[in-house]
TrEMBL record:
A Pfam family annotated for this UniProt entry: Na_Ca_ex
UniProt entry keywords in alphabetical sequence: Membrane, Transmembrane, Transmembrane helix
Tree of life domain: Bacteria
Membrane topology of the entry: Multi-pass membrane protein
Metal-binding found in the keyword field: no
Organism lineage string: Bacteria, Pseudomonadati, Pseudomonadota, Alphaproteobacteria, Acetobacterales
Record localization: Membrane
Protein species of origin: Pararoseomonas baculiformis
Domain Sodium/calcium exchanger membrane region intervals: 14-93
Coiled-coil annotated residue ranges, if any: none
Name recorded for this polypeptide: Sodium/calcium exchanger membrane region domain-containing protein
UniProt keyword annotation of Transmembrane present: yes
Length: 107
């Protein structure tokens, strides 16, 4: 494996980085536009809709890690990841997006 990686020219991983960064940037812009439209259609407010999308997008890597490690026969790692990272992210988003008296959640 090391020989294979050593034979790859430097421009290949740099090009991969540029392409994936562009894809992430494009997806982020589209996600923001979709969140704005959904906020207007549902009446949730832009902050709430954005928090839901950001929460979902930031939770995806943890979900993929949990599913792939469970599929590879490492249930302890999958459960630890799900109970650790995903729970903390969800709790943080619940606290941040919970309504507070006198505080508007929409701008």
């Amino acid at each position: 494996m090391q020989q294979l990686l050593a034979s790859v020219p430097l421009w290949v991983p740099i090009a991969m980085l540029v392409v994936t960064a562009a894809a992430i940037g494009y997806a982020g812009v589209r996600l923001a536009a979709v969140a704005d439209v959904l906020a207007d259609r549902t009446g949730l407010g832009e902050v709430i809709a954005g928090a839901i999308f950001v929460g979902g997008a930031t939770s995806l890597p943890g979900i993929i890690t949990s599913v792939s490690t469970a599929a590879q026969g490492h249930p302890t790692l999958a459960i630890g990841n799900a109970l650790g990272g995903l729970t903390v992210q969800t709790a943080f988003l619940a606290i941040v997006t919970s309504p507070h008296e006198g505080v508007r959640a929409d701008f």
